[in-house]
Amino acid sequence: MSWKKSLLDWWGSAGYKKCSEKNRSVLKAAVSLMVVLFVLAIGVRAEKSVVIIDDGKELAVRTYAGTVADALAVKDIVLLNNDEVTPSLDSALVSGMAIRIDRATDVSISVDGRMLPVRTQCRVVGDLLNEAGVAPGPEDEVSPALNAAVTPGMNVVVARVVTKTEEKEAVVNFETEQKYTVNLPQGTTRIAEEGRNGTAQQIWKVKYKDGIEIARQLVSSKMIAPPVNQLVMVGSGLVVSRGGENIRYAEAIDMVASAYTHTGYNTSCGVAPYYGVAAVDPAFIPLWTKLYVEGYGYATALDVGGSIKGNRSDLFFESYNEAMRWGIRNVKVYRID
Known about the structure:
alpha+beta, 6-stranded mixed β-barrel, 43% strand, Ubiquitin-like (UB roll), 4-stranded mixed beta sheet, 18% helix, 5 domains, 6 helices
């Protein structure tokens, strides 16, 4: 307190008495300011008791520090990116103060072929992506979901998904048809008609995930050039024995056979009808095809009829009575040519 004594001594000295009234007023103000500054200095330098709450852990501290930042430095507390301190670092330290440190969460974001390390105060994934400047597209897949809670060490994966419409010309492969024939040795084959691939104009909806195709849907297809199927003739090894004769055939067909006789007209192939003429559906059995009909014998497809469709046939007989005796019956027909 020596400075007070000196000041009082000077105050009562002759020097003070010699001052003018104006100077004495100025002197009083200066002394008052010095006293206030001194008191403040003493207050700042006084020891304070504070509590530092670091991410939920409490630490009691006694310090002469003047600001929050100084108090943290005294205890070697290091702040990292996005850590939040309340009150602010430049706040004056006051005894009894609680200093709260909310640590940011370390996470990562995998997007567009990169992994981005992030420290964040965000609580949900959607806010995290928004803070990092990552905007998911309408089809993008985010895992965990946008409303999922942010947890330490999590990796948020944003898969870019896009759907494109693609147009392309596609090859339409021809098919191979086989027909049996008795005109070739058993087991041998011969290409009767070469096949030819066709072309179609196709429109596809294609989905890509991070640049890799994951789904494809055909929207439309327009035939530009239809394919021509390949026809292969195969030597028949099929044999049926009838009347002591072995008959090699290419195909056996179950048919419904009726009977007819002379009408006064030639067959549709232009020949006069005779026993052994069969009327057929040309879409089912081509005209001039050689046949063997059980219960009738050999026949040739030379005629057609309005009611003869599909697996129906009409067999010629020389007389009305013979035709009536035949009637309509189910028969096995062997195509031998």
